[in-house]
């Protein structure tokens, strides 16, 4: 060790700092570390040594990664097939409108060519024509804004990680103490002093304990459920996990007890928390698309192919209209090309193609997911990213932390063992309760109000030799201090008081009345703090007889070694022989094998020099200043009993595990806790059965990583346990599972969990115990930290996915109807049935409410008993697509059919249509209406449309344009009605309306009422009717509309029946095949 005051290069045994990276400081002695880092702990670094080290290792802060720019985020939102199709369609429509506007520019009014109309009348003004592409642009912009907002939130996990870093440090430099040096200025080799409550500013080697004990809370980094004891002694294995590095203090952890002097070994990004920072950043760069987005992209690709085929087909069947030729000598000659007609049919092709696109789908999907977040919030699952709602529904593996998720994260006494009526006998009591609520649970077979002397002594020790406290906040009991000590105080409350004692005499309304009574009866005089060598804590108290006693609690084996006697049931003291000691150790082994943390209780009457101790002025007080004397003071003890404690499993978790098993979801427990404790909990909650051999299903993280066949081991059926897991282990497990095609939900609460939460398909953070880092890295936060909430959310996610399929089914089949209608119009050569503003109204307004209401479909009762769907399952199967086509085909035929019927028939299905006085024409005339000017003697009578009369005296051929207003209204009304009835078909994929009637979803009935109401609004309000170029319908005409529209329900009922028969025969074939195998 060097001499103070000399130049660092001249110090004896100390060389300038140039350690190999990484230097295993935990496996080296303090002297070795000081020599390696070129520093003496009593002097610290000199001012001249700091700059070169900082130049080499940088500032002690986490890197600021430059995230993608706003422009990059905006462009990323268009990396979606469906969005691209919409964008191209809107651009083409806008361009065509602009070009047509130029053609009639002298009119001062822009004429718009929409993507959805067969052709454009030059008489139509362009104001309404520009509405549709502009609305689509608006939808795309809103979609991009939402996407950018979500992406921007992803980087907050890194910012939250920086907040847990310490801002200042107490450092020794140049032999002087600097109490508030900015933590970012620390460099490797700095000497730092830590005290209770300090946040560790860097990774450091503990070189000296100032107090007798040192405890640090590092659960957020390692997953350990309790504060851990630290020492300055080296560990003997370089290749050890974080939990095993007991002589190291890690950045971001907190000192909860004691004080020490440390040597900084790693700073900034080289610390353990810096590694996590890098892992989070790496995970955020490799975010995969959600299963829903993948399916929608696949659907978009199929839609693109369909659009291409439609465009080509329409172009081919109409090529004869704009390209003609004559045959001369058997060869085509005299080609004639009409650019005007070519453009016209190009517009038709675009109209047909884009009619297949459900413009409202992105908005409805977002609305459905948002509604899903509200439902989940009611079940304590707070969704931070909308797509996660659907991702939950196809979860195949849940990787759960143990502490606080599967367990209550509240230590609880579950067994109490006391001495019997004579030597060689023990009494055992089962203790109920899983929280810090003293009123929860009871002690079985307990002598209430008749505590014997032995039980009284146990209660006294547990209450007085204890520094914990419990408070109640909003009906939630919270412990302050060590969780094990808090559990003992709850145990004392359940034990009650001796006969004849009344806690109410204290005049306190506190929670721990019994503990207060014991502390008042036996006031504490001095404390012998716990240390990791003797593994016990003692207090000197004034007994009610006037003398002093020593009360001790600690590790059972250590107390037995220092005990010479034992107290029996009646309070008598007998010698602790080997037989009695063996019996106690046997009970200890049984409790430990069940993963209980055991604490023993002992006391001492003969305190020698401390028998009259009364405070710091007493001569014996100097003995208490040196912790080395504690073991001798705590010798010659009288053993009285022991208690078994554990972090108990949540009561509802067992059923949740069963639900996961029924749903085909595997549960893997990945915890930082020790193997034995985790295995016991897994048996309790049903991850493993009670007698199951878990040798091939339970591994430490280090052992699992050593296997070459890790992926095969993860494929095992049933539960799996990885204990003593580090962040890198969790990430590797998630990566392997995702490579195997699994959809992974990962839970976590600590800083160490953040990288895996970010990498998982859905990261689930704890709302109560979770760090801000974990919450910001997650997709969902559990408000109650309860595993069963995840399972409930999975069920909700499945329901939401089914509902999304329902409205996608509804919207696509409806759009197919529009495509067929426009295609038939073009193919038959009849006047166009609907104008663009009408189709826009249907797609975005009329269809919107029913599609959104389908998101409220109730979940199937057996939704969590069905096998989970795979992430690569098709959104639309071949059979479903066939059903779409059949239903859509009928919708298109009915829409065009009623248009033709109005022109050609006086009545249809017994319903009279001649009341308005319109003129009938033949189908041949209707399909060749363009030749009307050449027809000799063609006349048309006036007819009534609402409250006006339409006449054609000037030009009878206008009957096929201005006169089609009634036929157009009928077509529009049939299309709206078919889509409303079709929404009832979408209630269930294969279930009949007789099994799942419309009123199971009252929101859908309300939505249909709203949509019909909106349609009546544009029909019967004159101003709106003029905008949409429609007229009111009579009662008979409405009867015709309903008669033509209703069969869509009957058609789909037949298709559903066929689907059920196919599914039944398929299931039977599978059963027979299974039997043969």
TrEMBL record:
Residues 24-98 form the Cation-transporting P-type ATPase N-terminal domain. It comes from the Eukaryota. SMART domains: Cation_ATPase_N (SM00831). InterPro entries: ATPase_P-typ_cation-transptr_C (IPR006068), ATPase_P-typ_cation-transptr_N (IPR004014), ATPase_P-typ_cyto_dom_N (IPR023299), ATPase_P-typ_P_site (IPR018303), ATPase_P-typ_TM_dom_sf (IPR023298), ATPase_P-typ_transduc_dom_A_sf (IPR008250), ATPase_P-type_domA (IPR059000), HAD-like_sf (IPR036412). It is an enzyme of class 7 (translocase). The chain crosses the membrane at residues 81-98, 127-149, 302-323, 343-371, 807-830, 881-903, 1003-1023, 1035-1055. Keywords: ATP-binding, Calcium, Calcium transport, Hydrolase, Ion transport, Magnesium, Membrane, Metal-binding, Nucleotide-binding, Translocase, Transmembrane, Transmembrane helix, Transport. Gene3D superfamilies: Calcium-transporting ATPase, cytoplasmic domain N, Calcium-transporting ATPase, cytoplasmic transduction domain A, Calcium-transporting ATPase, transmembrane domain, HAD superfamily/HAD-like. Belongs to the cation transport ATPase (P-type) (TC 3.A.3) family. Type IIA subfamily. PANTHER family: CALCIUM-TRANSPORTING ATPASE (PTHR42861). This is P-type Ca(2+) transporter. The gene is ECA4.
């Amino acid at each position: 060790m060097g001499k103070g005051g000399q130049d660092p290069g001249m110090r004896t045994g100390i060389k300038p700092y140039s350690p190999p990276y990484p230097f295993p400081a935990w496996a080296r002695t303090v002297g070795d570390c000081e020599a390696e880092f070129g520093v003496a702990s009593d002097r610290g670094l000199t001012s001249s040594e700091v700059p070169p080290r900082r130049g080499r290792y940088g500032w002690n802060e986490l890197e600021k990664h430059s995230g993608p720019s706003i422009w990059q985020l905006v462009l990323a939102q268009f990396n979606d097939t469906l969005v691209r199709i919409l964008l191209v369609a809107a651009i083409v429509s806008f361009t065509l409108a602009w070009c047509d506007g130029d053609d009639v520019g002298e009119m001062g009014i822009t004429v718009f060519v929409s993507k959805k109309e067969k052709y454009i009348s030059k008489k139509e003004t362009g104001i309404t024509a520009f509405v549709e592409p502009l609305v689509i642009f608006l939808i795309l912009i809103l979609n991009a804004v939402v996407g950018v907002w979500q992406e921007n939130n992803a980087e907050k996990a890194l910012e939250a990680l920086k907040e847990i870093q310490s801002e200042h440090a107490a450092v020794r430099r140049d032999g002087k103490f600097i109490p508030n040096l900015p933590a970012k200025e620390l460099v490797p080799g700095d000497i730092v002093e830590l005290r209770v409550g300090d946040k560790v500013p860097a990774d450091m080697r503990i070189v000296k304990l100032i107090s007798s004990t040192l405890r640090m809370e590092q659960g957020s980094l390692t997953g350990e459920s309790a504060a851990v004891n630290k020492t300055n002694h080296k560990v003997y294995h370089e290749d050890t996990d974080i939990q095993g590095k007991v002589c190291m203090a890690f950045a971001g952890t907190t000192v909860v007890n004691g004080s020490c002097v440390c040597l900084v070994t790693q700073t900034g990004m080289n610390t353990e928390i810096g590694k996590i920072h890098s892992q989070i950043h790496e995970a955020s760069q490799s975010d995969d698309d959600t299963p829903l987005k993948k399916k929608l992209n696949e659907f978009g690709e199929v839609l693109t192919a369909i659009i291409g085929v439609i465009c080509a087909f329409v172009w081919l069947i109409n090529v004869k209209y704009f390209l003609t030729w004559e045959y001369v000598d058997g060869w085509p000659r005299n080609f004639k090309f009409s650019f005007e007609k070519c453009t016209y049919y190009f517009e038709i092709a675009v109209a047909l193609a884009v009619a297949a696109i459900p413009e409202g789908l992105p908005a409805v999907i977002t609305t459905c997911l948002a509604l899903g977040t509200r439902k989940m919030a009611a079940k304590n699952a707070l969704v931070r990213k909308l797509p996660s709602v659907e991702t939950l529904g196809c979860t195949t593996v849940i990787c759960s932390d143990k502490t606080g998720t599967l367990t209550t994260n509240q230590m609880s006494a579950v067994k109490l063992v006391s001495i019997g009526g004579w030597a060689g006998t023990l009494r055992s009591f089962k203790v109920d309760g899983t929280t810090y609520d003293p009123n929860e649970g009871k002690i079985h077979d307990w002598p209430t109000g008749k505590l014997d002397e032995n039980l009284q002594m146990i209660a006294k020790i547990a209450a007085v030799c204890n520094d914990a406290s419990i408070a109640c906040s909003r009906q939630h009991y919270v412990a302050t201090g060590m969780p094990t000590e808090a559990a003992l105080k709850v145990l004392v409350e359940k034990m009650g008081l001796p006969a004849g004692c009344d806690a109410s005499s204290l005049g306190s309304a506190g929670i721990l009345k019994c503990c207060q009574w014991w502390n008042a009866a036996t006031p504490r005089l001095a404390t012998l703090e716990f240390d990791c060598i003797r593994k016990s804590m003692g207090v000197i108290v004034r007994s009610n007889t006037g003398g002093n006693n020593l009360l001790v609690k600690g590790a059972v084996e250590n107390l037995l070694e220092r005990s010479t006697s034992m107290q029996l049931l009646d309070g008598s003291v007998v010698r602790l022989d080997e037989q009695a000691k063996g019996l106690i150790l046997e009970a200890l082994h049984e409790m430990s094998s069940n993963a209980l943390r055991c604490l023993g209780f002992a006391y001492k009457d003969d305190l020698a020099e401390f028998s009259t101790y009364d405070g710091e002025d007493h001569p014996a007080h100097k003995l208490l200043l040196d912790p080395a004397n504690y073991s001798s003071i705590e010798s010659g003890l009288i053993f009285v009993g022991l208690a078994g404690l554990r972090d108990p499993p949540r009561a509802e978790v067992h059923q949740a595990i069963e639900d996961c098993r029924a749903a085909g979801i595997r549960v893997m427990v990945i915890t930082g806790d020790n193997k034995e404790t985790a295995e016991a909990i897994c048996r309790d909650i049903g991850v493993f059965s009670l007698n199951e051999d878990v040798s091939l299903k339970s591994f430490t993280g280090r052992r699992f990583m050593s296997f070459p066949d890790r992926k095969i081991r993860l494929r095992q059926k049933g539960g799996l346990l990885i204990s003593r897991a580090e962040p890198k282990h969790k990430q590797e497990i998630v990566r392997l599972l995702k490579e195997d095609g699994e959809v992974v939900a990962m839970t976590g609460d600590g800083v160490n969990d953040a990288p895996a939460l970010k990498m998982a398909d859905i990261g689930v953070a704890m709302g109560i115990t979770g760090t801000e880092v974990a919450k910001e890295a997650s997709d969902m936060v559990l408000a109650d930290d309860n595993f069963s909430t995840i399972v409930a959310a999975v069920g909700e996610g499945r329901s939401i996915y089914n509902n999304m399929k329902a409205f996608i089914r509804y919207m696509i089949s409806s759009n197919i109807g529009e495509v067929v209608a426009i295609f038939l119009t073009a193919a038959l050569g009849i006047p166009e049935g609907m104008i663009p503003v009408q189709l826009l109204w249907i797609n975005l307004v009329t269809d919107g409410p029913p599609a959104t209401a389908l998101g409220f479909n109730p979940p199937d009762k057996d939704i969590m008993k069905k096998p989970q769907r795979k992430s690569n399952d098709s959104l639309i199967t071949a059979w479903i697509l066939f059903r779409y086509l059949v239903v859509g085909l009928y919708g298109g035929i009915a829409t065009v059919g009623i248009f033709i019927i109005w022109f050609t028939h006086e009545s249809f299905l017994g319903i009279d249509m001649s009341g308005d006085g319109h003129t009938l024409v033949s189908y041949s005339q209707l399909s060749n209406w363009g030749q009307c000017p050449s027809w000799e003697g063609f006349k048309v009578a006036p007819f009534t449309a609402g409250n006006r009369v339409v006449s054609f005296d000037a030009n009878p051929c206008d009957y096929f344009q201005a006169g089609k207003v009634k036929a157009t209204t009928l077509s529009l009304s049939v299309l709206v009605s078919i889509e409303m009835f079709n929404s009832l078909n979408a209630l269930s994929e294969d279930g009949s309306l007789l099994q799942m009637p419309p009123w199971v979803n009252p929101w859908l009935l309300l939505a249909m009422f709203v949509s019909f109401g909106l349609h009546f609004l544009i029909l019967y309000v004159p101003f709106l009717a003029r905008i949409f170029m429609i007229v009111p319908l009579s009662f008979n005409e409405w009867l015709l509309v309903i008669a033509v529209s209703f069969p869509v329900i009957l058609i789909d009922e037949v298709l559903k029946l066929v689907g059920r028969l196919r599914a039944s025969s398929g299931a039977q074939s599978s059963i027979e095949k299974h039997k043969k195998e």
